[in-house]
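Annex B. Sample input.
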Amino acid sequence: MEDRSNPEISLEVPPYLRVYKDGTIERIAGKQVAPAGIDSDTNVVSKDILVVPERGVTARLYLPNSTAKTTKLPLLLYFHGGAFCISSASDPLYHNSLNKIVAEANVVALSINYRLAPEHPLPTAYDDSWAAIQWVASHAAGQHEEDNENWLRDNVDYDRVFLSGDSAGANIGHYMALRLHALNSCHTKDFKVPGLIMVNPYFWGKEPIGVEISNTESKKMVDLWWDFVCPSDKGCDDPLINPFVEEAPSFEGMGCNKVLVIIAEKDILKERGKLYHKKLVNSDWKGTAEFYETLGEDHVFHIFNPNCDKAKSLFKRIASFINEQ
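Annex B, continued. Sample output.
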């Protein structure tokens, strides 16, 4: 008879979660929750809102508390990382770093709580994120006036909407940018997305490149992450994780004018970030692709240590990208 007090583990997905033989999912990381409210360090105020009721999609909305009410600000639509299977907009790591980005860039931010794998297998995260973008676009067009979110209505310049995310969230941002042309025409005149910000993007592939070739243990771990959240016969060459395969959508379809790709020197994913930037520059896309590398740091270091000098420099680079004319 099975010992219910000591359930047997079926699968370990380090360092994120474990799956037990009875189907229970235990998340090891990304479980903490920081309350919304006023951040004393940045004077940024936040609140949690329901974005897409029919899908159960929520978000955390951020506003610089010192903003003059006559000033319309850019909107940053943010997709958090966590390999598609952990974390949330209320994770203290994301909450703290978003407060700092909002203060530095002087923007309104909407951090999306897409549903997680494996309970909600991919492409749920992409579909939830797209539904959130459509929700924002519909409000920009003046629809649903009776339930229009006043922080957005009173403070956002919908001509300056930016997509952004780190790791898996940067991956989502790429595919959301490719979908922008699908927005209903009644939205597009009121809702413009000039740019995409990709921090340490999570892309991968079956065949190792660069440092992936020698770092076999990390390669196996990243392989496992993707196979867990998106089991398919294509494995790590599924177009959702490998945008360079033939079946993946063409970069020419990017629906924004500029992209900022940010990598970290010690990150195992950096080779894919470099390749992404190179492919984008050499594609038929008509926009401008910018590149920024943080030396001496590893994957998403800025959310683990947002007060360090290199994180502050990264936030300033993001702010410059948003606010440059």
